[in-house]
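Bit of a strange request maybe. I'm writing a small parser for structure token strings and I need a real example to test against, not something I typed by hand. Could someone generate the tokens for this chain?
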Amino acid sequence: MARENENTPQEPNAPDYLAWHVTQKGEKSFWNKVGAAWKHKDGRGYSLQLETCPINGRIVLRLPLEDAPTETSTEAGRS
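Reply from user aminoacidic:
Good idea to test on real output. This should exercise your parser:
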């Protein structure tokens, strides 16, 4: 017996966060989108999918509804 939802296409889940690689060049920070994160069904963690794996700088998770940063001062987005 087949499950009911096997043949029904599922809508892709929008990510809970976008992953940004942030590097510092002098007084400026440069933000490049590198992936996304989705909350686990049990609410106790996240799955992070990276399209690329940076070796320097830092990775920042931000809500996707916020304006996507392209270039900011060193003060913005720091954790």
